[in-house]
Specification:
Belongs to the alpha-carbonic anhydrase family. It comes from Kocuria turfanensis. Its EC number is 4.2.1.1. Residues 31-90, 244-271 are annotated as: Disordered. This protein has 271 residues and is mostly beta strands. It has one domain (6-39, 46-248): Roll (Carbonic Anhydrase II). Helices cover 8% and strands 35% of the residues. The protein has helices at residues 61-64, 70-73, 180-184, 241-248, and strands spanning 6-13, 18-25, 81-82, 93-98, 100-106, 111-115, 120-123, 126-136, 142-143, 150-158, 163-172, 197-200, 212-218, 226-233, 237-239. The strands form two sheets. Strands 1, 2, 4, 5, 6, 7, 8, 10, 11, 12, 13, 14 and 15 form a 13-stranded mixed beta sheet that branches. A two-stranded parallel sheet has the order 3-9. A hairpin with a 7-residue loop joins strand 13 and strand 14 (226-233).
């Protein structure tokens, strides 16, 4: 029996002046590893350069730089395989996303979407500011051993530099009109910039049901810092095969394999 999770959506639609309030039950500094300020193209060889394959791939990240040792030694690493019978979180979470403009940018490891005005969530009374959203294809998290076509990470940071990440899994299905502006903004070449995505509300990118698994984990890219609060949505979104291929045409196979759960309990976080 799953616990009931409560996420409140609070979206402001500026064009019509209508406020929408619906109650749904159901990567550790500002410049993170997938941030344009710190990301480097996936090359191999020099210290600190990392990728998703070969000598600089995930199994070797901890050896590439002294700052990456947690990738090998950490005991609360992400992603994980979520057991199919894991309970959902009952922690109250409020999404305070408003209509905003965004900039897409390729980091060399993924494509990030950055908001040009503040977007926030509140988890268990702690407020986090949206930093960026990026994707991995195929998914990094699995559920009951099942992998998904893609996974999107909505990364948020609190005033004391704690991170909370909403994970959204994606399956192949119908064309998803809400995601079209985001996917259309994916740069045609690695390292490129795109025109702004205008008039987008982040809640439109999420599934209707926001029931989620919560656990304490880490960044899924070097330096693999721990202490990240993960909220992985149970219900995946659907993207068309064409939309998924558009994502994979720029970055494919940019997923870290799952890590041991160890003594962690799903939906019982220590934060």
């Amino acid at each position: 029996m799953h616990n009931t999770s409560l996420i409140t959506r609070r979206s402001v639609i500026t064009g019509s002046g209508v406020g929408l309030l619906a109650m749904i039950t159901g990567c550790t500094n500002t410049a993170g590893p997938d941030d344009p300020a710190t990301a480097s193209p996936p090359q191999g060889g020099a210290s600190g350069e990392w990728s998703y394959e070969g000598a600089s791939g995930p199994q070797h990240w901890g050896e590439l730089d002294d700052e990456f040792t947690t990738c090998s030694t950490g005991t609360a690493q992400s992603p994980i395989d979520v057991p199919s019978n894991a309970p959902l979180s009952s922690s109250p979470t409020t999404l305070d996303y408003t209509v905003a403009d965004f900039q897409a940018r390729d980091t060399g490891h993924t494509v990030e979407l950055h908001a040009l005005s503040p977007q926030r969530i509140t988890v268990d009374g702690t407020q986090y500011t949206f930093k960026q959203m990026h994707y991995h294809a195929p998914s990094e998290h699995t559920v009951g051993g099942t992998s998904y076509e893609a996974e999107f990470h909505f990364v948020h940071q609190s005033d004391d530099d704690a991170l909370a990440v909403i994970g959204v899994l994606a399956t192949a299905g119908k064309d998803n009109a809400a995601w079209s502006p985001v996917i259309d903004a994916v740069p045609a070449t690695r390292g490129g910039n795109s025109p702004e995505v205008t008039g987008l509300t982040l809640t439109s990118l999420l599934p209707d049901s926001l029931g989620h698994y919560a656990y304490d984990g880490s960044l899924t890219t070097p330096p693999c810092s721990e202490g990240v609060r993960w909220l992985l949505l149970q219900t995946p979104i659907e993207l068309s095969t064409g939309q998924i291929e558009d994502l994979r045409s720029v970055h494919s196979g940019n997923n870290r394999p799952t890590r041991p759960l160890n003594n962690r309990k799903i939906s019982q976080t220590g934060q």
